[in-house]
Structures are given as C-alpha cells and as structure tokens.
Design brief:
With about 290 residues, the protein is of the alpha+beta class. The chain has twelve helices and seven strands. The protein has a five-stranded mixed sheet. A two-stranded antiparallel ribbon has the order 6-7.
Amino acid sequence: MPTGVDESQVSVPLSVRLRFGHAAVQVVADEIGVDVLHIKGATVDPSLRPVERSGTDVDVMVRPQHVVRLDGALRQRGWMLYSTFEYGSPFGHAQTYQHESWGFLDIHRFFPGIRAEPAVAFDRLWRDRGSSQIAGITCPVPSIPAQGLLLALNSARAAKRRGDRAVDADSNAERRAQIEALVVDLDASVAFAAANGTLERFRSERDYRLWRVVSQGGSRSEEWWARVRAAPNLAAALRVAARAPLVNVDSLAHRLGRRPTRREIVIEFFNRPVRALGEARRGFRNPRVSR
C-alpha cells in the first residue's frame, strides 16, 4: 500500500451510497410514522429503464401533512438543510438536505406538473404503491405506470432527457393507457404535453408559459413572469411577485461556499436588476419565435 494511505478509508461508489441513503431515509420514516414514496434513480422499475441511472441524490415524495415531522426528524439525525422549498426550484416543490455519509436528499411535497391538490395526488399515488428492497430495507415506490408518468414529467424539465422510455411512442399500449389515465386523474396534461412535444395545444392554460420556459429555456425574468401567471389564484400570484426581487440566499451561499453577510446580500439585491436588464437586451438582439 502506498505510503500515507489510510487502509481504513474506502471509497464507496456513489450508486451504493445513494442506495444506503434511500434506506436511511426509510428507517427514519418508519420510526416516526411518515409516509414516503421513493422515486427516480435506483427505485425505477427495469421495464421502464433497463439501464439503471443512480442519479446524484436520493428523491422521495412525502405525504404533505407529514413534511414538517420528517424535516425535524432528518435534522435530528444529521441531515443538514441545503436549500429550502422557496428557493430550490421555480416550482417550490422540493427541499434539499445533505448528509456527510449519504450525500444529498430531496424531499418533494408535490411533483412538478401534477396540478391536483398535493394531498389528493399523494393519496392517489399511495393507493397503488408497490415496494422495492433497497439496501435490505423495504421502501414504498409508486406503481409502474405512476413511475412512468413521473419520469415523463421529470423529463419535461430538461429537454436533453426527453425521450425516456416512459413516454416513447413504442411503449406498450396497455402501459401507455395507464399512464394517460393517471395524467387525467392527477391533472398533469400540460406538463405531460411538454414532455411529449405537444405543449402548443395548451397555450390557453395558466401554466403554459412556465412549462415552455423550463422545457425550452428562457431568461430569469421570463421565468418569474411565467411563475406569476401559473399561480392558481391572485393571492398566490402576489406572493410569487413579492419574492421575485428578493435574493436567493441559498443560491448565493452555495456560490460563496458559506453563508453570505448582510452586505453581500444587499450587493446581490442591487445586482439582480442589472443582470435582468442585460438579459432583456440580449433577448431583443436575439428574438425567439413569438410566445
């Protein structure tokens, strides 16, 4: 063994570490009586994704009424908050944690693209759930058709991932029918269309512009305007608009590698509109097809 190498230290492959991460989260959920569904990565059925993609983090959906309990239990067991629901994504759907042994974890209080009320949607997915043995622990997972739908909705948020087998035209007819029935049950037609390249059919929907931006690209200002339009009611739209000029402290902290000072937050606050104007000028110089 080379000089200076500690033979007690072993490099654990990411895929293995993530499996133990799934198991660790499930142990916590079982201890406190919280319902979670393990999604994406190692939990995906091989019939949907023959070649496993472990991803870079652990993803679970949590029964919305159980989010607060799970959050407290995770923090007590060494999971450190990395980014909050408010700043984690344009949808505000997930909160990220980091553990020194298991890596990153995203807990989803709802899944982007599903417009049904979160508690109702979780009940629908929970009703048909299956299970998967991960690192020796039984972990609840969505049904195979539900996994297919979640893969499709997830692919809509990144064009390079579009074409997942879950939404391919050559998927077997019975499964595709089951997925399309879930699209109706969960009110997920707009995002599903974004995944399948038929989004223009839904131009009149309030969340059309948001799915156009996240699936095809756009500036931050376009994204914020789309988020306002996608809000389900006036109160929600006003809350989104009020957050638009605020600094994403989580993102700034990650860029700096530490919590920002008040002075740095103030500087970032005034830099944001400058960047927005720059984006607008670039947009005028390089106009895209009319939205």
